[in-house]
Amino acid sequence: MMIYSCSNRYLLALVLMLSGQCYAQRNPFLPPHDISCLNVQPAAPLWQLRGIVGQPGDYRAWLVSPQGKGKLWGKGQKPDARWQLSQLDALGITVMRSAGCTTPLKMMLRRDIYANEKDFISSDPATPSPGAMQ
What we know:
Distance between the termini: 100 Å
Organism: Erwinia tracheiphila
Structural class: alpha+beta
Strand content: 25-35%
Low-confidence stretches: 114-134
CATH topology of one domain: SH3 type barrels
Protein name: DUF2531 family protein
Order of helices and strands: HHEEEEEEH
Keywords: Signal
């Protein structure tokens, strides 16, 4: 009875070793197929997000090129050959690489974009705001 259980263990170990080979066909010394997604630099598009206009469902991103030219871009449009706008909302955009990279790049507007506005808005309607006195 003891011989029977030992042979079953060896048979089970042999089956497990052989079944794992079909999953291990990748060379461990070669990089994975999606390694290009890991090497994307944060400033890769070189376009600067300067603003977002529109309303929910119809936002446009104001992007400025490295040459200093600005243009409004909508969802699905390509500012250049490498990047495509995949999502737009009120605070930022998400761009995807056109070459099939699965890692998106999110560009957000700074949250303090309206920080100086509080200096010009008065909560007391009787007192004029400093911006109105100019």
